[in-house]
Amino acid sequence: MHGGVRYLEAAVKKLDRSQYDLVKEGLKERYRILENAPHLAHSITLVTPLYKWYEIPYIYAGLFLYDLISGKKSLGRTQIVGRKEIMNIFPFAKKEGLKGGVRYFDGAFNDARMAIALLQSAKEKGCVVRNYNEVIKFKYKDKKICSVEVKDKISDEIYSVDTDFVINATGVFCDNIRKVDDKNVHDIVEASSGIHIVLDKKFLPNNEGLMIPKTEDGRVLFMLPWMGKCLVGTTDEESFPQEHPKTDDKDIEYLLRHMRKYFSIEIKKSDILSSWCGLRPLVSLKHTDDTKGLVREHYIEKSNSGLISIAGGKWTSYRKMAEDVVDVVQELANRKNLHTCCTKRYKLFGSRENIGNIKEKLDKLGVREEISEHLLKTYGSQALVVADFITRYTEEKIHKKYPVLEAEVYYAIEYEFVKNPLDFLVRRTGLGLIDLNAAKESLGKVTFVLKESFGWSDEMSSVKQKEALELLNKGV
Hints:
By secondary structure, this protein is an alpha+beta fold.
């Protein structure tokens, strides 16, 4: 959750005002996420070890400027760090040639939980939220989209939704939807894959992250404290849209090789608790005459039929992207009477009550400290609702090593749109992302709760568990 330090370097070197504005916007949005979802977002300290004397003032100056641009929304002041302090923080950092480093502050957040909080907030405002639904085709009236045909992939039911406008905000799958509308359109999105590996917290003993801003091939390498573990990333390779992108041995070896270069400890494949691959939806406008999207991080396209597609962007600027695309809809609808965007100070679902007060109530209910901390970080003020599910069902954990409860599965079914085992294990709790073996060992319990809640037959339950295990074995 960042303003984009690399954009700032480009802005200064090329005197590019548009890149500077992009950083400024990102820093504003970073602050808004921290304000609007404080249970899911927090500041994080990052240290960059440096091995050449001239790099210290250069990196410091850039990060000091980063602080200046953020102004009152700064998360902390950039500092020069001595060699001895770096070795205390990161005892595994390579000592040979180490001159010192720079510490700076940025944001971090639980992205999976943020997605759910946004959906829940939208539902509160009257939106209908559907999981496992796929757009099959559009219907037209006077060459304009008037209806969307949708397939429920769980029940196989096909239904239609009448519409005035359709917003296509589907990330790397943006072009798939554009081609449902017009099979002849040129792609505007290029997928780029990035992998992460997760290690035990012993590899990052302090609660500070480590950032190598430029490796030998110009990429960024980081180690971050994340969900009680050490998160390492990332790669950047050309890819293509796919539902389950897989980690590649050569990408894992790339990260391990660079860690050996910057750290004086041997990290082996057997140390990896989990690994996964994600896809970045990068904007490519090779086939259009519109160059605006080459500067802005996200790009909005309006088709002749009325389909509005938004592509590119990053998590930090999600709110501004939404504001921009809804402004386009408002303009097309010619609705002058609508009020201006109100999401800049809109507290998301789970963020509207004082966490300290919620903690006191959990203590009075006798919720154990480990469980209480987990519930507050995961659900915010909704922790009390989850506590009610504990009372109704069970206090039992799904795995002995982690504070995730069976009762949370029941809650996730009712409040968080869960339909399948990996929805819970990977996309709600993140257990599959931090400890693959623990997720596999928890699969039976989670599947049983889903079976009980949805009335699955023994055969259906077995199929669902087998499908989930196959995906876990491939690496989530």
